[in-house]
Amino acid sequence: MDLNYTAAQRAFRTEVREWLRATVPANKFGSYDTREGFEQHRRWEATLAEAGFSSVTWPKELGGRGCDLIEWLIFEEEYSAADAPFRVNQNGILLLGPTIMEFGTEQQKARFLPRMARCDDMWAQGWSEPNAGSDMAAISSRAIREGDHYVINGQKTWSTRALFANWLFGLFRSDPQSSRHHGLSYLLVPLDAKGITIRPIKALNGKQAFAEVFFDDVRVPLENRLGDEGQGWHVAMATAGFERGLLLRSPARFQRTAQKLVALYRKHRASADRDPSIREAVVRAWMGAEAYNLSSFHTVSRLRHGAKVGAESSTNKIFWSELDLEMHETAMRILGARAEYLPGAPDAEAAEWLEGFLFAQAGPIYAGSNEIQRNIIAERMLGLPKG
Ligand SMILES: Cc1cc2nc3c(=O)[nH]c(=O)nc-3n(C[C@H](O)[C@H](O)[C@H](O)COP(=O)(O)OP(=O)(O)OC[C@H]3O[C@@H](n4cnc5c(N)ncnc54)[C@H](O)[C@@H]3O)c2cc1C
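That is the input. Now the predicted structure with flavin-adenine dinucleotide docked in place:
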């Protein structure tokens, strides 16, 4: 095993680093959970796309760089080290894009992928419903076929940034007699279609991070179905696999947080050292981020030798979400009362940690709750009986 980067990989790192140094905006954007901030982030990602950096693992002809996963890890390291803006096109680039590549017709690929890569279209995810969260097979929103259209009625909820996106991908019950995983179809729905109402939901930080989407006789042409009619569950599981698997949360993101945590600890060492368990937590966080990084390289190396990411993506998801929580909780402990500063307070650093702390609470819930991931590990990895 050769643990050194190749000359080509080192050259790629230099190219990315120099491009980011020259291009990352000096001023912070507004929150991506506001219309104006979202648009700033979208434009930034379109700039990334012009250099093929919005979707580095996508094929070149579709607007990507054709990178392998090692190069992706390198790109992510440089991106996090440059403190470059959060990317708001992940639903498209990481989830729907690969699903279209696998299940889409040639027409669908040509119609949706280049616009997605350029950030001309921004996608929201429409799985959850008021009575179908963890138990997604309980979906009741219907898409009934009428001639060359589906007519959709029902409701989706918790749809991240659906307020600002212009398309939604989601699962709908196309066979009204069916139940559970059967009779569902995967549809691509323009959010400006007649009959759609989008209502914001406030997140813990008070921002309009999610939305409820109501469908009232919304007509969607048959060619907007991804995969076969009634096979939506199978297609959606591929999307969910991409979400929980390697790409959603790169190790570099947590290594960067760990570095910042160490810097925070050093800055406030005099007060933090009054409680030795804080120092231990900082060290544990740093080791956790390094361990996640090594484990990701291990996974990539296995994938390069033909393995597939299976149920172990659930262990990944639990690990990074709990690590993120622990890192932010430790920062809160270091900051003490200062942790309660709101954005706009003189200590901007503290406000950023608070924002991260609030978002970290969601990690064990989104992309499939950690309890559900533990069920998957128990049943599919450990072979334990169904609970
Ligand atoms: C930040 C964030 C972004 C999101 N973005 C989107 C989005 O863009 N699109 C979208 O469709 N959804 C989105 N969601 C919704 C998310 O997918 C759901 O919240 C999640 O699947 C859990 O469903 P629920 O909220 O209905 O909780 P429930 O399913 O009602 O679960 C409640 C609790 O019971 C536990 N539980 C449930 N079933 C079991 C079981 N069988 N065994 C053990 N424990 C169980 C759960 O773990 C949880 O703790 C988002 C959520 C968050 C927090």
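DSSP finds twelve helices and eight strands in the chain.
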